[in-house]
Amino acid sequence: MVKELVIVRPDDWHLHLRDEDLLPITVNESAKSFARAIIMPNLVPPITKLVDAKSYKHRIMKALKPNLSFIPLMTLYMTEETDPREVEKGFMNGLISAVKLYPAGATTNSQSGVKNFEKIKPVLEIMAEIGCPLCIHGEVTDSNIDIFDREKVFINTVLEKIRTDNPTLKVIIEHITTKDAVDYVIAGKNNLAATITTHHLAINRNDLLAGGIKPHFYCLPVVKREDHRLALVEAAVSGSPKFFLGTDSAPHLDHDKESSCGCAGCFTATNTLEILAHIFEERSALNKLELFTSINGAEFYEKNINTDKIKLIKKDKPVSFPKKLSTPLGKITIFKPNFETKWQVLA
Question: Is the model's pTM score more than 0.85?
């Protein structure tokens, strides 16, 4: 029985840090385990210009504690007015590592996203030419489409056309939630990949809804049936270079989650690696954890593999984690799945 695991320090290929009073809390919580992260640009206002990305990166680094090392990989928020030259300049000089596409209204702070996909063709063409990855929130927003079907419909009606029109474009379908998405990514060429979150690997829609609504399990895309969760797990533990970790760790204050219209998002930065170790061990796949957390994403983004290591140890009894994270604005609940884990990152 494995009691100790040493892996290359992981990266998080989808992370929300927020800003201002929350930033010193969130960035240091992620930096405890992760070397780098793709930083989501859906602030208010969103990060749509290079000057905004540069300023946000400066604020992130200023909030980082001196004893921690962390590299924020910045992104631009795509709108229908995004300038292809701005994207080209930012990617070629290394200021941004990707562009994020939100369908307008799909999730938190996505109101400035894209409604007319024809208008972003020039940007996508430049991105394909220079090798800039496109990160996609893959859901349609049509109110006539059931919320549990929106990922599948987006793939069939929007994403397939984007990829057909731009066959060399590097695309990451973020936080996939369905077997349909898994199958689509597997069938695609090497320039198509997907991130999978900790919470979508750990819970299904029964966990969210059965016996009462659990607001701290509510996220977008919403969790699906158990057969979809199992398909995500099999993709994650497969070792396939097409799948890698993007936590989508998203801090919301408790009073915003526990309300009549609760915010979508799970805060998993604190205990992601422990949860993943438990899930991978259940599938006798601890030897694939490093690929999922530390190798596949870096290779897809064409980044160097981290050189430092991180150690996880397995305790004899379940490990306890803090239930809440204190911030100047209030408490944030740390995600806790409906199982115990004996794994712990060695500080």
Answer: yes
Which H/E stretch holds residue 77?
Answer: strand 71-77
The amino acid occupying position 158 is V
Lowest-pLDDT choice from 102-116, 199-213, 319-333: 102-116
| CB-based burial, 269-287: b 16+ in 10 Å, e otherwise | bbbbbbbbbbbbbeeebbe
Peptide bond into 167 cis (omega under 30): no
Q: Which of 248, 254, 308, 316 is flagged as catalytic?
A: 248
Q: Evaluate the CA torsion angle 203, 227, 296, 191 in order and state its sign.
A: negative
Residue with tokens 């930033």: 23
CA pair distance 206, 118, nearest whole angstrom: 38
Known catalytic residue: 316?
no
Q: What domains are defined for the chain?
A: 4-345 (3.20.20.140)
Backbone angles phi, psi at 307, to 5 degrees: -95, -25
Structure token pair of residue 46: 């969103």
Nearest-angstrom CA–CA distance, 292 and 302: 15
Sheet holding 343-345, edge to edge: 4-8, 309-314, 343-345
* Residue labelled with tokens 């998080």: 12
